[in-house]
Amino acid sequence: MRFRGNTQCASAVGLLLGLLCAVEAAKVNKHKPWIETTYHGIITENDDKVLLDPPLIALDKDAPLRYAESFEVTLTEEGEICGFRIHGQNVPFEAVVLDKSTGEGVIRAKDKMDCELQKEHTFTIQAYDCGEGPDGANMKKSHKATVHIQVNDINEYSPVFKEKTYKATVLEGKKYDSILKVEAVDADCSFQFSQICNYEIVTPDVPFTVDKDGFIKNTEKLNYGKERMYKLTVTAYDCGKNRASEDVLVKISVKPTCKPSWQGFSKRIEYEPGTGSLGLFPSMHLETCDEPITSIRASIELETNHIGKGCDRDTYSEKSLHTLCGASSGTVELLPAPSSSANWTVGLPTDNGHDSDQVFEFNGTQAIKVPEGMVNTNLKEPFTISVWMRHGPGAHEKETILCNSDKREMNRHHYSLYVHNCRLILLLRQDPSEAENYKPAEFHWKLDQACDKEWHHYVLNVEVPSVALFVDGTMFEPFLVTEDYPLHASKIETQLTIGACWQDNSGHDNDTESVSEPTSGGNARMAQFFRGNLAGLMIRSGKLENKKVIDCLYTCKEGLDVQLPEEVAAAVKVEFNPSQSSLTVEGDDIDAFDKVMQHISYLNSRQFPTPGIRHLRISTTVKCFNGESCVAVPDVEGYVMVLQPEEPKISLSGIDHFARSAAEFESQEGVTLFPELRIVSTITREVETDPESEVAEGADDDPTVQETVVSEEIMHNLDTCEVTVVGDELDGEHESLELDMSQLQQRGLVMGSSNLGLVITGVNSMANYEQLLHLIRYKNWHTEALFDRKFKLVCSELNGRYVSNDFKVEVNVIHTANPVEHANNAMMQPNFINPVHHASVDLSGHNLVNAHQASVVPSAATIVIVVCVSFLVFMIILGVFRIRAAHQRTMRDQESGKENEMDWDDSALTITVNPMETYEDQHSSEEEEEEEEEESEDGEEEDDITSAESESSEDEEGAEPEDQQGASRQQQLEWDDSTLTY
Known about the structure:
- It is a single chain.
- The chain is α+β, with helices and mostly antiparallel strands.
- The chain contains 15 helices and 60 strands.
- A hairpin with a 2-residue loop joins strand 33 and strand 34.
- The longest helix is centred in the first third of the chain and has 25 residues, at 2-26.
- Residues 917-982 are annotated as: Disordered.
- It is a single-pass type I membrane protein.
- Keywords: Calcium, Cell adhesion, Cell membrane, Cell projection, Endoplasmic reticulum, Glycoprotein, Golgi apparatus, Membrane, Postsynaptic cell membrane, Repeat, Signal, Synapse, Transmembrane, Transmembrane helix.
């Protein structure tokens, strides 16, 4: 029994120990706390309590059961929640544990919240348990949960008016739909409390009302005699019924009488180039003072007669414009811009004040002769004459525009175009081979345009026996045609002149003036001089211009435009003149009329428009029921100010100095002048910058400056590139500049050449011009006396309005040396210099200093060299140690900047120095350095060197790093002769 009792006791003790072990085991912190993944909260403005959904509760599986069978178990810290942690920057909230055992917590604001500063807050939160043991070791944390808290607004702000005072002026006797608008704002963050729900006029007994949007209008017609100014006090209410903190004062002035006029018109209207169309009268309306109107007619005129040829047009050459407008080939330009290939207009006064339009001035003393062969007009074929002309009041004398007359003796006029008493007259004599009968010979047009001092475009389509004249795109019939007999047959050559008629002094001598012309010769004179301006004089043989091309040549790039609203298109009639410089608007509905006027705009489609003023004038006629002009509306004048466009800078760059062998110059292909030419156009504009960023960067020079200059590339056309020879002119017997004509024709360009160079003309892209210039070759099949040749390239746009830099290229000729003649020099070459075996050597950026002179060494010079070398041998040996030490010092200096260059050991070299050669080399190197310094100062440094050039000029290219060593080495090779006794 004792044993059994002891056994039962042992069993009870074991059960108790097991429970105690379970309790000890429960103290192990195995699990992480758990919380929800997302919480949404609401907090009221100016409060710190957050209402969360769901509530903030953290659970932990380490929390033991409170009762296990009949034994009470004490709750341990491993299952308790000790805290919450908020993650995020500047989070204005904190989380607090309310009950560690249940894990319950709350989130509250650190300070009172302000909805106007921030409406919503988002951050993350984690729960932490209490860990193991009394020191809280092995503390575990839950996953991160996202908390979204919205701040509820309270109506704490009152409305505030944007302006302190509002003013308006009205005419007496008129009721307005709206006189002015008052506007208040509320700083509350919510839609409900920030919206203005109502405006109210506080001043009693005034004839005005205000609606919920703040628009004030009068409730009755106002009388100037009764009240000249009304002062109203207006308040506002937000949707939370808060009244404005301060009421606003509104002053409404009453005008005594109504004056019909245009209202809302701005006198100055600025137009920025490249912005498309610009509305001229967006807020304008016609005040008719409630008169019973039956019709309104307004004429809007844009005056541009002072801009170029009457308005803004493309200033390309006339020949290029014909190409752009689709005219067929065969056009000859008789008044071209002066160039090396077209120099007969050199010295003729030009009108340089009109944005590079090629305009020539004739004042009654100048005339020019067109070179022979330029025009070969067969009068049997149809032909076209076109010209821009500005001519003043007509004189009684004839004023010749174009004349083809006998070169000597008879002075007969074969055909001519002239002005006489405001008449334009074309003289066209028959060919002498035709039948001897009367045929039309003179065609007369009486034109106001011929004497109004304005620019006009004239086109004559001649197809014998009829002639059609177009002036500014409008066709005119001749009012008089006279007939004449054919000319008598003769072998006298003719002279084509512009600005006068050529007549020999031996012929008719009446009404002539002498002109000093070095090319005229003899006693020749000019007669019937023209007084005015001419431009774009063209002749085309074999085909007539069609109306589409004529309109294209005349059409302005600027003008008026209007986009009619659909609702008023039927009620108002709009008509334009051909050049769109004026329009008329007619209608009987004043509201529709105002809408049309508000949609009139100015448009300039040029990429680089002419800056300056374009005057505007509006003339208005108003009629009433009786058909009379019952309302007199005064004219309105203003102007469009076209701002200065961002002008392009055309830059030419590439290899500007290289050498080629004489064989290449004499080859069939010749030498390419511009192999790596680049044409780039940039514009420079000012942009506003943030002043705060400037202060942050330390820009304390001038805090008011808020612009900075930036450059960007743009694409546009070129119309001329000219290659000229620098120095002696080209000798056609043994040198030339050549370009494949098929390449020109593919791009629709034309080339002219002379002994001064060549000129490529025509409108085309910069890329196409660049490709063509790459193909220009220089050939010289007599290079014995040629050592270098220099050329200059200039490109331009818009007939010389924008001109590139002068890109100069120098080409050196390498004459092949005779090995026998150079035997002595070859023996003196150091072993470490590799001989050049290339047939062509490129020396980009280097001058060849008298390379041809080294082919023969005079015998006298050889004797001097031998004597000097013998005399200096012992000094060289004595100075070898100094040379070696200096070389080692130089090598150490070179290694710091040129680690990758090949070094050599010259300690074992025996050096023989020719003092005369050293002297010559020093002077030649000094000349090279001076030339390179001048080139660097001019900004013409060589940057682009092709791989072919670097290979073919390995020795000379390698001399760039080695020349620096050579220069220092040469200085070190100089001897100290201070101790010598002579």
